[in-house]
Design goal:
It is built from 7 helices and 6 strands; from the N terminus they run βαβββαααββααα. 33% of the residues lie in helices and 12% in strands. β1 (2-5), α1 and β2 (24-27) form a beta-alpha-beta unit. It has helices spanning 12-20, 77-89, 95-107, 114-128, 180-183, 191-198, 202-209, and strands at 2-5, 24-27, 40-45, 48-53, 135-138, 153-154.
Length: 212
């Protein structure tokens, strides 16, 4: 069993699990943690990695569950995110091919709950890459860690921004990026970086980046 969190346009590391593994569980009963991929993704802008964060409604609870987090309607985050994505990837090989699949997420009102928005984007990505992840969703009660069970791989708090990759089953494979000459190769960005740059060959990169 591999445990992941809900994630906004999740990084390549997460998609290697969805693409290659047969028993993935998405945890939604975890405490929502700020500055994680739950409501944030990283893309490759001209100046380097750029974080895009979805504003959320801060409830009364001290430790709300991820499943209960609602997206805030304040501000222009949808247009800001889409403009940033266009600026970063309009010159990538496959942006024109896939842009219309993502644009509606940023032109219409987002679902009320963050997990629903994340799930809809993930469904779109998987359809474009022509695979169906073997994933179940846990939204009933938190799954406790099993420290002495090697078949239990808990990545809920391991895959996150500003944390060094600590995953023996993930080896980032370099691929073409628009601003690589300026910034060098930037590993483990959002799946849209891989998709817009590599198109259908993103499947091969996901496979090569996964280690048994």
């Amino acid at each position: 069993m591999i445990l992941l969190t809900s994630a906004y346009l999740a990084p390549v590391q997460s998609y290697t699990k969805l693409f290659c593994c047969h028993h993935v569980v998405e945890e939604r009963c975890d405490h929502f943690v700020k500055q994680t991929y739950r409501n944030r993704c990283l893309i490759a802008a001209e100046s380097g990695p750029l974080a895009l964060s979805i504003p959320i409604v801060h409830g009364d609870g001290l430790k709300p569950c991820t499943r209960d987090i609602r997206i805030s309607d304040h501000g222009r985050w949808r247009s800001l995110h889409w403009n940033a994505i266009v600026s970063a990837y309009e010159n990538s090989p496959f942006f024109d091919y896939y842009a219309d699949d993502f644009r509606p997420f940023y032109e219409k009102s987002a679902p009320r709950f963050l997990v629903d928005f994340n799930e809809a984007l993930e469904h779109t990505v998987c359809n474009l890459l022509e695979f169906e992840p073997q994933k179940t969703i846990n939204d009933t009660s938190y799954i406790e860690p099993r420290l002495n069970d090697p078949s239990f791989i808990d990545l809920r708090e391991t895959i996150r921004p500003k944390v060094s990759i600590d995953d023996p089953h993930f080896r980032p494979v370099a691929y073409y990026q628009v601003f690589a000459q300026r910034n060098g190769f930037l590993p483990n960005l959002s799946i849209i970086d891989l998709l817009f740059n590599m198109g259908p060959e993103a499947r091969l990169v996901l496979r090569q980046s996964f280690r048994e």
